[in-house]
Amino acid sequence: MKRVAMVMVALVAGGLSACGSSEGGSGGGKGPVVVGASGSLTGPLSPIGALLQKGYAQRVKEVNDAGGLDVGGTKRKIELKQLDNKSEPNLAAQQARTLVTREEAVALLGSNTPPINNAIGAMAETLRVPLVMGLNPIRAFLSGSKSGWNYAWDQFFDERQATTVQYETANLTQTNKKVALFTDNEQDGIAQGRLWTENAKKYGYTIAYHAKFPVGTTDFSSFIRRTKASGADIVIAQMIPPDGVALWKQFKALSYSPKLAFCEKCGTNSGWGAALKSSAEGTSGLGNWLPQPDRPETKQVMETLGKQIPNAHDLGLAVSGYTAASILFDAIQAAGSTEPEAINEAIGKTDKMYPVGRVKFTDNAYGVEVPMLQWQNGNGVQVYPAGGDAKLQTPVAGLK
Amino acid sequence: MTNAIVNGILLGGLYATIALGLSLAFGVLGLVNLAHGELLVGGAFVSYLVVDRLGLDPLLSLVVVIPVVFAIAYPMQAWVLTPLLRRNEDAPLVATFGFSLLIIALLQQGYSSDPKSLPASYADAGVSVLGIDIRVAYLIAFAVGVVLIGVTHRVLLKTRLGAMVRAAAADPDTASAVGIDVRRLYAATFGVAAAMAAVGGVLIGITFSFTPTSGLAWVLTAFAVVVLGGIGSILGTLIGGILLGVVEGVGVHLLGGEWRSLIIYGLFFLALTVRPNGILGRRLA
């Protein structure tokens, strides 16, 4: 019995983690410029981490195929050192240190979600090395440092804007304006739940029920019964993908058929459609990128990443990584140096058009404009802003 | 409240199923199997493969899943764990941790970490009985759990094979002296325990979702169930599962979902303190 208790405590407290590592590298001289990234290549966030990595890899390939970066008159290739943080913030922070101190990375690229990105950001601040990230909602990013960020830079959607997109998408159809929220206890779940609640009245909506639960929850029966009792026509959820899949199956089993259902973070990559099949139809979720077909940056990305990644949700995640890498590499060229301080200063001066728009940082953050996508025929299609791929379909087809 | 209690009882049947193999392995082999969660998830992945390739229903896929997982687990015990057990009591614990990491790595390599779910018409179906909404998947899981536990209990208590297992669990040296092949019996027991875990994995795949790393969360729940019911007690596993399901359901109903983990682990530590041998005590069957 004592042995079981010890094992249980060890499992709960420590989790099953292990470190990854890779060899060698230098940021100085005429050799390659080493850039580090601790990515969620395994663990629950790996579907997102793998796409982010694709974006990084594409930009690295483009730069290296063109001969490398012009650093103070010398062409130098980029070497991207990538470690697997297993979707764990503490491991990500340790790896950021390893990448800088052992692998001699002159700058870092981010990972995904606030807990991991902010952990890497804190390490970047300690080491005074620039870090450019995406996939970290701006408010969660800004709240991650009480004294303000100096070396960490974020380009992703602002939760306030995202809230607007959700409610304005809901305005596209007739509902009773009652909303049920499902948020887990991760940093972004808490922050987003608060914003939806605070802004509901402004858009004419009422939060009829708010289910709060820890990550890893599997049985949602009691929440669904209360949601049904509340009469909510709209569900807005923010949770990790495995929990979201379980929730959607239970919605259907317990005959809850909302007019609109948003699943943020959970329903925003192709794994959603693969796991739920027809039940995924009609689920809405923020896209990570609002393509502007007339812009050359958009055309270039569609020619490369767009051909590799057919799903619109997935493509947006990869574009976020592509943009982060582009900003960092441009800054290294602009600095004409691999000195972290010089690169950091150059990032701060960024004012250039990228696939996600004209990036110019304020308080180390840039809010990316994002669309609302809805799962239709197995793919995410743009339903907001109007003029996108398709019209919003209601009620949620997969939950009928 | 009635909804929460009924739901908790049915969910408890699923909890009992996922904990049964863990309890059996501990009761017979004295082994805390840290790879139990991964064997469980591994069963779900084998079913996923069978469903995908052969188009079988997930429950029918058990015909393939059970022997496959048994065949994987049997040599794990025969060639690694039993020899280690003879040398050092704690070595097998470390070895199962190694198996756990190995299985996760293999599953991630083969399937990525995207969440998976086993498709079936009853997976997202529900029925209403006397005003209580019930998931069909919960009913199936409960029924499977009760049958599995009943059969295991009966085999252990009423059959010659069960008597041999109990003899080997109580005193392997004496059992060996009277002609019982303890090594094979241990391997078969571990194989059966793993196959039971795989059944639980298939039920989880039908009812919820799974990823290569979701075994950890389920093994924690399984530990809580066996501690509540009594380690090695087969019937205690059913009682522990139902108790955990009901306390969780009622707790969430009364206090809110954010208390869920605290309720489960609070109950676990309370049981360890007040009844360290569980509700039915520490015994095999």
Characterise the protein shown here.
The complex is a heterodimer of chains A (400) and B (285). Helices cover 42% and strands 20% of the residues of chain A. With 400 residues, chain A is of the alpha/beta class. In chain A, the strands form four sheets. A seven-stranded mixed sheet of chain A has the order 9-8-10-11-12-16-17, with helices on both faces. In chain A, helix 5 (138-142) links the parallel strand 6 (131-133) and strand 7 (152-156). By secondary structure, chain B is an all-alpha fold. In chain B, a hairpin with a 2-residue loop joins strand 1 and strand 2 (132-135). Chain B contains eleven helices and two strands.
Q: Layout of SSEs?
A:
The complex is a heterodimer of chains A (400) and B (285).
Chain A: H1 2-14, E1 33-39, H2 46-65, E2 69-71, E3 74-76, E4 78-84, H3 89-101, E5 107-109, H4 114-127, E6 131-133, H5 138-142, E7 152-156, H6 159-170, E8 178-184, H7 187-200, E9 206-213, H8 221-230, E10 234-238, H9 241-253, E11 260-264, H10 270-276, E12 283-286, H11 296-308, H12 312-335, H13 340-348, E13 351-354, E14 357-360, E15 365-367, E16 372-376, E17 379-384
Parallel strand pairs in A: 1-4, 1-5, 5-6, 6-7, 7-15, 8-9, 8-10, 10-11, 11-12
Antiparallel strand pairs in A: 2-3, 12-16, 13-14, 16-17
Helix pairs in contact in A: 2-12, 3-4, 6-7, 9-10, 12-13
Chain B: H1 2-29, H2 36-54, H3 62-87, H4 91-111, E1 126-129, E2 132-135, H5 136-158, H6 160-170, H7 172-177, H8 182-207, H9 215-229, H10 234-255, H11 260-274
Antiparallel strand pairs in B: 1-2
Helix pairs in contact in B: 1-5, 1-8, 1-9, 1-10, 2-3, 2-4, 2-8, 2-9, 3-4, 3-8, 5-6, 5-8, 5-10, 9-10, 9-11, 10-11
